[in-house]
Each structure stands twice: as structure tokens, then as C-alpha cells.
Predict the structure of Crotonobetainyl-CoA:carnitine CoA-transferase CaiB-like acyl-CoA transferase.
Amino acid sequence: MTQRSLPLAGIRVLDLTRVLAGPWCTQNLADLGADVIKIEKPGSGDDTRSWGPPYLQDAEGNDTRDAAYYLCANRNKRSVAVDLATPEGARVLRELAAVSDVLVENFKVGGLAKYGLDYESLKAINPRLIYCSITGFGQSGPYASRPGYDFMIQGLGGLMSITGERDGMPGAGPQKAGVAVVDIVTGMYASVGILAALQERHQSGLGQRLDIALLDSVVAMLANQNMNFLTTGKAPGRSGNAHQNIVPYQVFAASDGHLIVAVGNDTQFRAYCVAMDAMHLSSDPRFQTNQSRTINRDVLVPQLAEIMAARPRDYWLERLEAVGVPCGPINTIEQVFADPHVQARGLRLDLPHAAAGTAPSVASPLRFSDTPVQYRAAPPVLGQHTDEVLQEVLGWGPEDVAGLTAGDAGGT
């Protein structure tokens, strides 16, 4: 049987992105087999290379030049150090764009036009090019020219209005998520869009431009909370660790810690009452359906909390798992990677790294039965593949490469 190729084998991606949303997108494509060429400014590279500490350490315990932040989103790529702000550097990128399938960039709106690297200019060179622009606010609208960062768009886009403890409780107030979720989700939307554009190109033979915005993405990801507002005209507020539409679906304090109980239907609620030896609650008309429990949550939840507080966390986890009620601990990240199921799924990786020997990474959640993700290398050091790419992809000779890296395009 002929061995099957990776899903995106043969696809070349020119990556002009930095920080997180764009690199997250292109790492997805790289994991799926695309040849991702990461273009970086000579001398400094991606902004996140210096976003530390912590930094990746070598075998002797010395810091390398790459922060842990950078490592999270640049696996399986090749780094080319070229300054696109110079005439020679811009020419190199136009040559690479001419032989690429996809270009992903996250510059300010119109920022690449002066270098001849905007969509219209590159479309004339390569009509099959799929050109994905990732910005804070998109290519149109009154905010288009504004810079956009995850934190401020979590606030502007409504996510922080529904995240955090509810008003009147200790610690109440809006709260950002513990990871840059808007960047991550935007990167995922960009990945999906690129894959769809590649599929459409099979029919038309033509590329197109994708306009992906952080604000659009965060508004879209509010999902049921959007619908709570759009169907009622009333904006939902913060609920802390409780669910707006399902009860009980929240954190409870046990006698020695906390756990999550996620009752998703009425059958599970009855099982929950069995585990708590509290069948009087499941027979109470006020609590028999999710609708009635949601309406009467202020009556029900204090009774549940009192029962849960009387026993240790692990007692409840064992009891609830035995009757099929979804539940779980609140782990630290250290505890996550020590969890036997996480270990069995192979989520921790160690990949070869040019400066440190190896670098830790986290496996892609994409699991294919016949064309699994391949982890070829850790995120590259700055300019690691400049000579290799220019010779292999553009057919330059060693003298041409030497002239570039010594000249106004900037080098490694």
C-alpha cells in the first residue's frame, strides 16, 4: 500500500505574522504538513521571542534567545531573516509569494502596500495565492486603522462583561480569560478559512483574500450568550463559575477543596441527588426540570452547597463518577501534565531544537487515523533556514545568498 501524505503536503505558506493569532494559524497549517516559511526581521524576529522570562534553557541551564511564549506557536516552521522594509528584502518576499500557495500577514491595514506586498500587487504576480489578513478590526469599518490586542478586544467585544464573579460577590468585576483566547480563536478561524479557500481553489483555480478580525472572532465566539441577548434584548451579566442556562453547572466547595459539577440534563440531576443522598431535592417540583432549576437556582444552590461542603473533594468525585454525573477537579497546569490520561494521550512533546538540544511542546489536538500530525522540529531560531530556503525555493546560488545577508535586506 502506498503511504499517504500529510493533509497539506505540497502547500507552501509564507508567514508574515508575529505574536499569537497569526502564528497560531500557521502552526496549525505546519502541523498538517504545509511548508511554513516564517519571515522575521533580522536581529529581533517575532516580538514574542523577547516576551520573557521564562526563556528556553539549553543543556547547561543558560537562557537561549527565545522566550517560552514564542515556543507555543511556531513549531514545524522554517525561519527566514529578511527585512521587508528594504527594497531587496521586499523583492525577496515577492519572489517567495510568486511560488507560494498561501500568505498570512497581520500588519496594520494598508501597511504592506508601500512594499508591493499587498493583496492586489501579489495577486497580479500569483493569481492562485490565498492571502489571509489578520487584524484587530478588519479591513473595513470605522476602527479599521486601529491596532488591536487580545486583552482590549476581550473587553471591547463583550467577553469580559460575562467573565468574572457576579456583582455583589467578593471579587466581583470583569475579568479577562487566563489565556489570550481571542488570539487563539482568531487563529483557528483563519486556519479554517484558509483550508476552505484551498478547497475552493480546486474548482476555480484562483486564490482570494481572507479578512479575519479579532473583534469579529470574539463576537462570534460568544455563542449562546449572544443568543441570550438577541432573543430577549437583555444583555447577560457575569455568573462567576456558574452557567447562565444550566443548573447545577458550577464550582462547589468541598470540605478540603473545590470541584466542578456539570449536570447537563434532568437524568443526571436525579443521579446527582442519589449520590448526595438527597432524593427529596429531585422530587421537589421546583427542581425537577432544568427550566425550573434555573428559575429557582437561588433556592436550590445553597442547599446543594451545604451538602457538598460536608465531605472531602475526592469523596464527591468518586461518588459522582460512579453514577455518571460529569465532574472534575480544578487542576493546576502542573497537575494537568501529571494526569495519567493526559500522559496517555501524549500531550507533552520534546522536539529537537537548534540551540537548546530539545524544547518542550504540546501536541496538536487534531488526531488523524491515517495521516497523523508529524512533529518535525521545535520552533526555529531566528534566521535558521534563510540560506536553505533561498537556495531551495528560489534557486539562488551561495553567492546570491551571501550577497543578500550582507546587503540591505538584512541577514542573520
